[in-house]
Amino acid sequence: MNNVARIAGSWFIWGLSYYLYYPFVSLYVVKFVKDVTLVYLISAIFAIPLPLIGGKLARKIGLVKTMILGGIISGIGLIMVGLAKDLLLLIVSYIITSSFFLALPSYYSYMNNLGKGTISVVWAISILPSLFTPYIGGVIASLLGLREVFIIAGIIMIFTGIPLLGLEEINVKNEKVRLNYKILIPILVILPIALAFPFIYLVLRENYSMSYEEIGEIATLAELLGAFFTFLYSRFERKFLLSVYLFLFSLASLVYVNPFFSVFFGLWEAIIPSALEESREKSPEAFGLINSMQQFGWLIGYLASYLAFSARLSLLASSVLALILGLSFLFIRK
Predict the structure, then answer these.
(1) 288 near 102, Cβ under 8 Å?
(2) DSSP labels, 239-284
(3) Distances from the Cα of 80 to the Cαs of 83, 88, 99, 251, in angstroms?
(4) pLDDT digits over 67-111, tens only?
(5) Does residue 150 contact residue 89 with C-beta atoms inside 8 Å?
(6) How far is Cα 313 from Cα 316, in angstroms, rounded to an integer?
(7) Is 171 part of a structural domain of the chain?
(8) Would residue 45 count as lying in a domain?
(9) DSSP helix/strand/coil, 170
(10) pTM of the entire predicted model
């Protein structure tokens, strides 16, 4: 098994875990607090320094060990989320779940050193479980309960390090981050995603009274769309694709017109790796900075959602911002 296959295998397992629980986070959190953005907001604050710490940690123990460690701690956090009995424990547990951000700079650094396009290919492979696990998560939630979804997802997350056990360590030069507009792209695209993230599937539940299985089916369709466009980016001319993805993502706010417009939220899966491919950084420190700034983007988006006091307004702002960014990137390229 080559290095790309081992990284892809690890991210595939991550996908099995993540897509099992992520459509149901807001549906679970709302049982503890009415304004779900509060939990997202607090966890984002604590997540901001984690990629920077992860970049430093990679220099101490290596890229591979850092990847494995991040997955284990994150998995423990997910299990704790499922066992949480009150809001405080839920918040602490969800913060621990964010420990996967310790591993992200090492993953991205390793992948970018394997060649351009590797991030998009591996990301696309990691999305494959989304074609069935959101539905499975919905079935588990209906039969056993939402708590069990997070516990099972946590157990799976712990095993993300298994394919990495035979991965050879590589030495990456500690290069300074080159400050240019391209390094801002992965950060800016997070804003419209963060504005929509807490609400898109909650709207399906509260406005259309959809069952957990139905929400899982919608989430699966959304991720299928995201997977397709991620593969498209890794295989074809990329010049204007990021702008196209942002334009399509902006359609998600039309969920209030028809619930099936929520499938365009799945474009977030194509937007993030496409934006990361725009960066030419290779060191874990550089990706630590980028990922940390991305977390700051999540924080700003969640804060805006929290202050908006309205899912409808937050989703509308997400679409408008996505359109503005898409047009801006087109103009910059010209």
Answers:
(1) no
(2) TTHHHHHHHHHGGGGGGGT-GGGGGGGGGHHHHHHHHHHT----SH
(3) 5, 12, 13, 35
(4) 999 999 999 999 999 999 999 999 999 999 999 999 988 998 888
(5) no
(6) 5
(7) no
(8) yes
(9) coil
(10) 0.81
The residue type of 125 is I
173 in any annotated domain: no
- For residue 187, give every residue at least 6 positions away whose Cβ sits within 8 Å of its Cβ, in sequence order, or none: 290, 293, 294, 296, 297
Q: What is the DSSP string of 178-241?
A: --SHHHHHHHHTHHHHHHHTTTHHHHHHHHH---HHHHHHHHHHHHHHHHHHHHHHHHS--TTH
What tokens were used for 202? 């909650």
Q: In the structure encoding, which two tokens stand for residue 40, read together?
A: 């997202």
Q: What is the CATH number of the domain that holds 329?
A: 1.20.1250.20
| Domain carrying residue 101 | 3-163+180-333
pLDDT in tens, 291-312: 888 888 888 988 888 887 688 9
| Residue 260 CB neighbours (<10 A) | 13
> What's the domain count of the chain?
1
Is 144 part of a structural domain of the chain?
yes
